[in-house]
From TrEMBL:
It catalyses: (S)-2,3,4,5-tetrahydrodipicolinate + NADP(+) + H2O = (2S,4S)-4-hydroxy-2,3,4,5-tetrahydrodipicolinate + NADPH + H(+); (S)-2,3,4,5-tetrahydrodipicolinate + NAD(+) + H2O = (2S,4S)-4-hydroxy-2,3,4,5-tetrahydrodipicolinate + NADH + H(+). (S)-2,3,4,5-tetrahydrodipicolinate binds at residues 158, 167-168. It comes from Pseudoalteromonas ruthenica. This is 4-hydroxy-tetrahydrodipicolinate reductase. The active site is at 157 (proton donor/acceptor), 161 (proton donor). Homotetramer. InterPro entries: DapB_C (IPR022663), DapB_N (IPR000846), DapB_N_CS (IPR022664), DHDPR_bac (IPR023940), NAD(P)-bd_dom_sf (IPR036291). Its EC number is 1.17.1.8. Belongs to the DapB family.
Length: 268
């Protein structure tokens, strides 16, 4: 039976692509397009806003998410505060969640871990296949390039992005730190403008570009004297993230409560 999927933040950049990805997947049914309680879209047919949906979406209108909402799985790409409010309802209802929202602080992450004791949660700061593979590749590079390698992570995104560095950049840095057996928070450097010293060997430096319509680009640098390795991923369509999230939604719908990663979904 096809999974009935509800999309939270359905009017967002990702939300609209998620509506299409859910609607176009043969194994999922778009069961809810949820917007905020005061949204002007409430009651508006999704086909009037998102073009190219199949006839399966006909008759579905944007609605507010609450305890009455009926779905097998929820997908959330919103903002931390909204996601946590959605999570509380999902826990109360026992509905599995796929979460792509980034910019969570430590306490907000703890709320996710706590919730995953009651419902299955797939959390990924990037749902593309390439980035999830890159999370493995940077660990190999971190181990093999040697202690002399300078490690930096660069990311570029569209002008509307709020959080920085991106969730993906931080995930790459954390994967590198794990491979080096470093504490990420001890080695992360976000700003060198006040530093009057050369960098140390035990650093992961982050740099950020915001501009135009860049969907998402990430590069991990491993720089030695005389050579440098650059591992780059470029997303050119949000559909890649949306299709990954729909894949995760199908995977998680019958899982036991727990905290799952996209690497587990992809068996990487
Ligand atoms: N993991 C991954 O693969 C990816 C993750 N992302 C992440 O997804 C998130 C969304 O990105 P994007 O779609 O570009 O952002 P948008 O700003 O376009 O969309 C955000 C959506 O969240 C809704 N929202 C915000 N706050 C709340 C709230 N308190 N309650 C309910 N709804 C809320 C907004 O509603 P309204 O319009 O009414 O404000 C909007 O629909 C970001 O964290 C981004 O980093 C993005 C791409 C890929
Ligand atoms: O906000 C975005 O757009 C994206 N956010 C995610 C992140 O913060 O890493 C994933 C992707 O790069 C797009």
């Amino acid at each position: 039976m096809s999974a009935r999927v509800g999309v939270l933040g359905a009017n967002g950049r990702m939300g609209q692509v998620l509506l299409a990805a859910t609607n176009n997947d043969g194994d999922t049914q778009l069961a809810g397009a949820y917007v905020r309680a005061h949204s002007q879209l409430l009651g508006v047919n999704v086909n009037n806003v998102v073009k190219g949906l199949s006839e399966h979406a006909e008759g579905l209108a944007f609605s507010a998410f609450d305890e009455q909402s009926q779905c097998d799985v929820l997908i959330d790409f919103t903002l931390p505060a909204g996601m946590l409010a959605h999570l509380d309802i999902a826990v109360a209802k026992g509905t599995p969640m796929v979460i792509g929202t980034t910019g969570l602080d430590e306490q907000q992450m703890q709320r996710l871990y706590d919730a995953s004791e009651h419902i299955p949660v797939v959390f990924a700061r990037n749902f593309s296949v390439g980035i999830n593979l890159l999370l493995n590749l940077v660990q190999t590079a971190a181990q093999k390039m040697g202690d002399d390698a300078d490690i930096e992570v660069f990311e570029a995104h569209h002008r509307h992005k709020i959080d920085a560095p991106s969730g993906t950049a931080l995930a790459l840095g954390e994967a590198i730190a794990e491979a080096k057996q470093w504490q990420h928070d001890d080695v992360a450097v976000y700003d060198r403008s006040q530093s009057e010293q050369a960098k140390s060997q035990k650093e992961i430096g982050y740099s950020v570009l915001r501009g135009g319509d860049i969907v998402g680009e990430h590069t991990a640098y491993f720089a030695l004297m005389g050579e440098r390795l650059e591992l780059t991923h470029k997303a050119s369509s949000r559909m890649t993230f949306a299709q990954g999230a729909v894949r995760a939604a199908k995977w998680v719908q019958n899982k036991q409560p727990g905290f799952y990663t996209m690497q587990e979904v992809l068996e990487l």
